[in-house]
């Protein structure tokens, strides 16, 4: 039994020396950033979360990952179990926060009681024609130019020094369920895609991925859901025209099934656009997969580590 069961990822927090440059990048990426009175740059999506991405002034680094608890009562339960405290959350949306440090020193911020925002309207999807149905007739398809529309934060990936130790720490506190465990060889696991335990409510294939890696501890990437594939591809074109740095994409993952597109912020931190991911309930259990499955694609370019295999 875990101390609490989180509902979702809430935010990622960074540090950067030039908030103006970060703001420009985030706008091009499809987020909606704004500078707060305390000098922190917060960025939201079109969903109800008050912010998804935060940047404070300083030398470039990853600062924290945030998760959302179901209630402030859960925060008090967590704080008591961890000999920590429940504090007011001085950020957009307010609420309360418990701050913990994981085995690799990552700061983990668990929030609850935030005031959610009215979701921003999404542009209605245009009817698409394919060989199975012709929903659009006597009208042309014209997509708007500009950045992708980031709706929400879906997951983050952390590189850790000891996968089993980190897995045990996160599961014991937050109730994660393994979706796919990654084996380098039979019986030798180096990571896992883990989803929230929301009972019968379907949830993302993974909210957190832990990967044991030689470069650990290291932030790997954070992934933001966009409206659909057209939106993702328009965002790809917009970032390319802005001469931003691509990392990997566009393709469709094997594990999680998302259509993905990875980019780097001005200081090298990877952020992903994704759409059309898998959803599972607690009853769907866990699987094992190979390291090749982790890096492989159903279509699109292979991961840079495997690119030499593609001919």
Keyphrases for this structure?
single chain, 311 residues, alpha+beta, 2,3-Dihydroxybiphenyl 1,2-Dioxygenase, domain 1, ten-stranded mixed β-sheet, eight-stranded mixed β-sheet, 5 helices, 20 strands, 38% strand
Give structural notes.
The protein is of the alpha+beta class and 311 residues long. It has a single domain, classed as 2,3-Dihydroxybiphenyl 1,2-Dioxygenase, domain 1 (Roll), CATH 3.10.180. The chain has helices at 19-29, 72-82, 163-174, 229-241, 291-295; strands at 8-16, 32-35, 41-44, 53-57, 61-68, 87-88, 96-101, 107-112, 150-160, 177-185, 188-195, 203-204, 208-212, 218-226, 245-253, 259-264, 270-275, 279-280, 287-290, 297-299. The strands form three sheets. Strands 19-10-11-13-9-14-17-16-15-20 form a ten-stranded mixed beta sheet. A hairpin with a 5-residue loop joins β16 (259-264) and β17. It is globular and about 65 Å long. The chain starts with 7 loop residues before the first strand and ends in a 12-residue tail after the last strand. The model has no long low-confidence stretch (mean pLDDT 96).
């Amino acid at each position: 039994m875990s101390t609490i069961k989180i509902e979702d990822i809430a935010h990622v927090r960074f540090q950067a020396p030039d908030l103006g440059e970060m703001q420009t990048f985030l706008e091009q990426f499809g987020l909606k950033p704004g500078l707060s009175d305390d000098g922190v740059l917060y960025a939201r999506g079109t969903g109800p979360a008050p912010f998804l991405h935060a940047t404070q002034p300083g030398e470039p680094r990853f600062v924290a990952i945030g998760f959302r608890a179901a209630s402030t009562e859960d925060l008090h339960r967590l704080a008591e179990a961890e000999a920590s405290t429940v504090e007011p959350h001085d950020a957009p949306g307010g609420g309360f926060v418990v701050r913990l440090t994981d085995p690799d020193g990552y700061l983990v911020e668990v929030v609850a009681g935030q005031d959610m925002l009215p979701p921003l309207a999404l542009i209605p999807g245009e009817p698409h024609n394919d060989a199975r149905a012709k929903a659009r007739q006597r009208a042309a398809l014209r997509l708007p130019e500009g950045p992708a529309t980031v709706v929400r934060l879906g997951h983050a990936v952390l590189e850790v020094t000891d996968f089993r130790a980190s897995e045990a720490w996160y599961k014991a506190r937050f109730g994660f369920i393994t979706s796919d465990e990654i084996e380098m060889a039979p019986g030798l696991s180096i990571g896992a895609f883990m989803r929230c335990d929301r009972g019968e409510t379907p949830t993302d294939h993974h909210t957190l991925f832990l990967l044991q890696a030689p470069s650990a501890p290291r932030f790997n990437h954070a992934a933001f859901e966009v409206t659909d594939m057209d939106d993702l591809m328009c965002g790809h074109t917009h970032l390319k025209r802005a001469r931003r740095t691509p990392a990997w994409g566009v393709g469709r993952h094997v594990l999680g099934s998302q259509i993905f597109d990875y980019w780097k912020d001005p200081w090298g931190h990877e952020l992903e656009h994704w759409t059309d991911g898998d959803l599972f309930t607690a009853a769907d259990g866990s699987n094992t997969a190979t390291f090749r499955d982790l890096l492989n694609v159903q279509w699109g370019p292979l991961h840079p580590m495997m690119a030499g295999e593609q001919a």
